[in-house]
Amino acid sequence: MGNHRDSTEEVSSVAVTSLEASKEKFPDPGLPPHSPRLTDVDPKQNKKAERHVTLLFVISILGALLFWFAYFGIRVEGNFYDVTNPENNHLLRLQNLFLGLGIALSMFGIGIGIVHWARALMPDHEMVEMRHPVSSEESRAEAQDIMETIIDESGIKRRPLLRNTLIGSIILAPLTFVTLFRDLGPANPSLLKHTLWDQGVRLVRDPSGTPIKAADVTIGSAYHVLPENLQSLTHETGYVEEKAKAVVLLMRINPAELNISEDRKDWNVDGILAFSKVCTHVGCPIALYEQRTHHLLCPCHQSTFDAANECEVIFGPAAHPLPQLPIAVDEEGYLVAQSDFHEPVGPAYWERAKHVNEMAGEAN
């Protein structure tokens, strides 16, 4: 035990000696001499830098306003998806241009403005402070004094125009992204309970609108499908909204490879299945079908659904399977819906279970 203590003390002594030798050999160089900037010695340059920062914050505010003008002010009349309409194409391109330009200017202005403010106007003296091992009342009071000193040195109190434009850009820039949240889904989840699908409504190809015969759907094929009665709607009567809820992906799988529950045995036609294209995560359109594995992939966040197993989630953030549309064949051999979806389509929301139970009760 005594030998162990002696060896430990010897190692400690050697370490201290080595540290002292290192300090003697490599002395602390200290901080380099401070070089004042033009804004530190020339009041005109200081005022000019302040105007530049203010201008950048104003650009950020104008960018946010441009975004909202494009979002709320540019309206596309008629069918959103009529690519043959040159006026629609022009307005859509113009709106997308202004939306992107508005967000870019808003974020660019506030970002570059803060960087320029820090580099040109805020104090740039280097300093070294020892870190205290334990926080105390004195330490907290000292930290508060430091924060007040930083605020004073930043000049935000004595530069009201710069301060006000900064506050305006900080408030408006994030709101451009918040505005986009309103497009993630309806404010009233009950709107997703029902779509245009109903008993006897034919399945038609998107975008041609031609009905689909069961005999034309081969194993491994996939179709983007809409309800036939959607064609009677216009942009003013809710075409876009109804299409967003009713879009369906149709595919045919070898019946021997399907795992179907007893209550869904008659929801397919010899392996022809129809599932909602609206991802149950945040509502992105699912359009990628892997024929060999029968997987459906959402391109936004990689949620993956197994079409051979009632579209259960096998990967990704989605919490619920894709709703299945019950289908049948009419007298002429065309595919038709047996009913509407038996559960709400779209993203999973906190009242989903309640709405599923309500729809089950309505179906009964």
Fold and architecture overview:
By secondary structure, the protein is of the alpha+beta class. The chain has two domains: 38-126 and 138-183; 189-363, Rieske Iron-sulfur Protein, CATH 2.102.10.10. 42% of the residues lie in helices and 10% in strands. The protein is built from eight helices and ten strands. It has a four-stranded antiparallel β-sheet with strand order 1-2-3-4. A four-stranded antiparallel β-sheet has the order 5-6-7-8, with no helix packed on it. Strands 9-10 form a two-stranded antiparallel ribbon. The protein is elongated. The relative contact order is 0.09. The mean pLDDT is 81. One of its GO terms (molecular function) is metal ion binding.
Task: Tag the structure with descriptive keywords.
364 residues; Rieske Iron-sulfur Protein; 2 domains; 4-stranded antiparallel sheet; 8 helices; 10 strands
